[in-house]
Design a protein that fits this description.
By secondary structure, the protein is of the alpha/beta class. It has 2 domains: 218 residues, Spore Coat Polysaccharide Biosynthesis Protein SpsA, Chain A, CATH 3.90.550.10; 78 residues, no CATH class. 40% of the residues lie in helices and 20% in strands. The protein is built from 9 helices and 9 strands. Strands 1, 2, 3, 4, 5, 6, 7, 8 and 9 form a 9-stranded mixed β-sheet that branches. α8 runs antiparallel to α9. The longest helix is centred in the last third of the chain and has 22 residues. The N terminus is likely disordered.
Length: 316
């Protein structure tokens, strides 16, 4: 149901930004959006405010909207949690604005000038209905040596723009309108609002419906990891959360693989436990420790004992 390969008519695009208590990050992101290269598109920006007490994001939009070079608006999402925010952005983009594309980017990111065009070009080149960008890590200072090569901070980056099996994050992603209208209006599951992992579960459902995914290697955004997120405790909680979310997805969508997954968990638990004790340098020890935490998270998910890791927000 996507547009034909190579076809690129004038498109209406909404950049949707979830925000919660990060006015500084939101300001930097909005500034970077004004520098986007764009051609043959009608572009608007919508900020979805999820902090109904202080509403710092909505106040920022009200302050700058008159002088902002693009149509800029905010909406309030009263129900707390990222899933509710993303669903609200789906609705307003495709129902209210009647957009061809919703492009979501988080308020702790900023984007490079070619980011939007690269996402669109990859869609038209591949025909894939969902296209993800490349998010590069940025730190407030020199990151500790133990962070090096950890996928939590430095995930494998796409080197080509091409179709891929699945996306796992909607932090920098383009969705074609057929995802909303043609596949039963699939929505982000509110269960994951404070537990995390809802992006991957949402995309897993879309894939089962026949949606195709692509990565756009030159659609570059930068994600800021502040000091609170460059700690071993935070990395441990993140690995645990990922494992718990992965197990829930297996239980919901791949239950036939459960036995083999349990075997993998047992093996990986032993590898992680011994590696975290026997490794000679901090980088290797941390890698094995996070492997162990991910398996413990999977066991927690198997027992339906997830932790609400997103009740606390990091960053400004």
């Amino acid at each position: 149901m996507s547009l034909s390969f190579g076809e690129s008519p004038r498109s209406k695009v909404i950049i949707g930004i979830p925000t919660y208590k990060r006015p500084q990050g939101l300001s930097k992101l909005l500034e970077s959006i004004t520098k986007l290269e764009r051609s043959n598109i009608e572009l608007s920006v919508v900020v979805a405010e999820n902090d109904q007490q202080h509403r710092a994001g909505a106040k920022l939009v009200a302050k700058v909207s008159d002088s902002y070079p693009l149509p800029l608006a905010s909406i309030d999402v009263s129900q707390r949690g990222i899933s509710f925010v993303r669903n609200a952005l789906l609705d307003i983009a495709f129902l209210d604005y009647e957009a061809d594309f919703l492009v979501m980017v988080d308020d702790d990111e900023w984007v490079e000038s070619k980011w939007l065009n690269a996402l669109l070009e990859t869609h038209f080149k591949t025909g894939c209905e969902v296209v993800g960008g490349n998010a590069l890590a940025e730190f407030e200072g020199e990151p500790p040596s133990w962070t090096k090569a950890l996928a939590i901070y430095f995930p494998e980056q796409a080197s080509l723009s091409q179709e891929i099996p699945l996306l796992e994050s909607s932090a920098s992603v383009l969705l074609h309108k057929c995802v909303y209208f043609g596949f039963g209006q699939q929505r982000f599951d509110p269960f994951y609002s404070v537990y995390g992992g809802g992006d991957k579960e949402y995309f897993t459902r879309l894939k089962a419906q026949g949606i195709k995914f692509a990565s756009a290697h030159s659609a570059i955004s930068h994600e800021l990891f502040d000091g609170a997120r460059v700690t071993k405790r935070w990395a441990q909680e993140r690995a645990f959360r990922i494992g718990a979310a992965d197990m829930r997805i297996i239980l919901l969508h791949h239950r036939s693989n459960l036995l083999s997954e349990i075997v993998k968990i047992l093996v990986a638990t032993l590898v992680g436990a011994f590696g975290s004790v026997l490794s000679l340098n901090s980088r290797s020890r941390m890698k094995y420790w996070l492997l162990l935490q991910r398996q413990l998270g999977k066991l927690s998910g198997l027992l339906n004992k997830q932790k609400p890791v997103y009740e606390k927000v990091h960053g400004k």
